[in-house]
Amino acid sequence: xxxxxxxxxxxxxxxxxxxxxxxxxIVRINIIGxxxxxxxxLKLLSKLNIVKRSLFGNIINNxxxxxxxxxxNRKYKIEALTLEERIIKENVDASLPGRILTIGSMHPITDIxxxxxxxxxxxxxxxxxxxxxxxAFHNFEALNIxxxxxxxxxxxxxxxxxxxxLRTQASNMQSRILIKQKPPIKVISSGCVYRNDYNKTHxxxxxxxxxFLVDKTISFSNLKTIVRDFIWFLFNNKINLRxxxxxxxxxxxxxxxxxxxxxxxxxxxxxxGMIHPKLLNxxxxxxxxxxxxxxxxxxxxxMLYYNMNDIRFLYDNDLRFLKxx
Length: 325
Ligand code: DAH
Hints:
Layout: H1 2-16, H2 21-32, H3 37-44, H4 50-90, H5 108-122, E1 126-127, E2 133-135, H6 136-139, E3 164-166, H7 172-180, E4 185-194, E5 205-216, H8 220-234, E6 241-246, E7 251-260, E8 266-275, H9 277-282, E9 289-297, H10 298-305, H11 319-322
Parallel strand pairs: 1-4
Antiparallel strand pairs: 2-3, 4-5, 5-9, 6-7, 7-8, 8-9
């Protein structure tokens, strides 16, 4: 009897030793497994007389049940301790707020270009990419701007070599495409242009979208309607605009378009006109055809659209500003 009492004490002691479920399982197999201590004791019962067999049998079975309970308790304890240790080790602060996923958006310049392209593509224009390293011929001469033409001075040009330059206007694509394609031609082309200027309203690199249409019976009223519809599309029909006579060497009947700002002043947004007959002639396009062209300053539109007074905000990459657009 005393022996069995001691056995239970031993079992209690050994069950407290393991610190992992794996170790605990080894102890369990040793004590109540098929070949464990308790099974060997039960086997010995056959050697006792009936009275002692049932007495010891009962006690050993009780010890077995208690042992099983002790194992279950120890298992729960080990699991709880392991979890606690993991939490401390991994340093999880469940009270911290979750990470906010910030969602990006289009840059104002990209946004205005894509809105503008969407408008003209719907009208059947096709979009063509342009080249930025250009020769003087396509940037100037082919656009009726010969070497000593006064308007060349307005283009503070970045020359790369004696003949090559960074294009100063997206109209270079007009001169290239007119020569290559047969009418009807309906093209838009957007991209970067470069001029050596830097202040509140100018950056050395900026964006233009050039568009032109050549077909039979194209008149200035077609140009006016398309440009007006475009401005109303972008500024929600609410805005007042005017066509102001101007001068560009590559258009004959040249105008600039101004819109009336919220502060009641007229602001220039684009240049346009009827393509100069010289350009059509140089491209071997018959006199049965006429065409119009327009050049949109994307930064200028973006500044009006987002109500900005300094162009440099567009290039500072300051998220506080960009998030407001
Ligand atoms: N290329 C001109 C500029 O950079 C803008 C322009 C004006 C383009 C009139 C045109 C146009 O096609 O017809 O200032």
